[in-house]
Amino acid sequence: MIISQTPLRMSILGGGTDLPEWCEKEFGHVVGSTIDKYIYVILTKRFDDKICVGYSKQETVDSIDEIQHDLVRESAKIVGMKNGFEIKTMADIPSGGSGLGSSSAILVGLLKIFYEYRNISVTSKEIAEQAFHIERDILKRPVGRQDHYFAALGGKNRFTFFDTDVFCEHVEIPSNNLYMFFTGITRKSTPILENQISNINKTTEIYYRNMANLAKSYVYSKNSLPGYIKTNWEYKKLLSKEIMNPEIEKMCKLADEGGANSYKILGAGGGGFLLIYCENEKLDSLRESLKNYRELPFKFTNYGTRVVFNNE
Asked: Nearest 5 degrees, angle CA 266-CA 271-CA 274?
């Protein structure tokens, strides 16, 4: 049995500027961190030549090409897996539509565990690039690179995205005044991202450029983060009409009434988690105002995908 553990991520500044459609025009910059919420992948060897895949469904097939779970199928193919294995995926939170990069974390965790099983040495950056290649080029999903790099490398980072390369640098991000509340909505990011991509033109170009420059300019100081988050949110809302909805508007209003300094939706928008910056003296008021929404406590982490158990 082998178990991989892959962290989810919190994208704080610049999300969207990692899309290739933007990076082909100008540099993208994203600031964020991995958090202590994980995707787990469990791999065991089978006696027979069947392949079993367990997630919200249960599959038993005779070949890799027959696997319906597209992330398992394509990652197994790219690593060169053979028949005779069973794999299961589990998540600390709902693994779809959370805005925390769960699908990319699943894919990174799958690649990590398949390479471990085959005893093939690869770097974290290679895993990130292969995961991006699978989602973007093979599965044709409208994704950027940030989720794969956060999941593979981990830590509090600023990523700079070029047309064909990525540069990573560590940054300080204070977490003691950041809180996450669940909107109660899970959604597929694809329609939102497709709409954003279709809008990367003269209408929204200024917003992407401003978001990228904001993330590029980020420097840690005791009181700077709420202003960065607020400014980023004002730009982000203009990227697509799909990002906001009445429930999110209601939640933002309640956050204001509770004393929040600033906030933003994590991920593509439309649902998932609302990230809020709030000073300690207003925290009780914030929680009372948002009492009908579930809070998710978290901590930042410093590592990416890793094998936590291997008795093969």
From this structure: 45
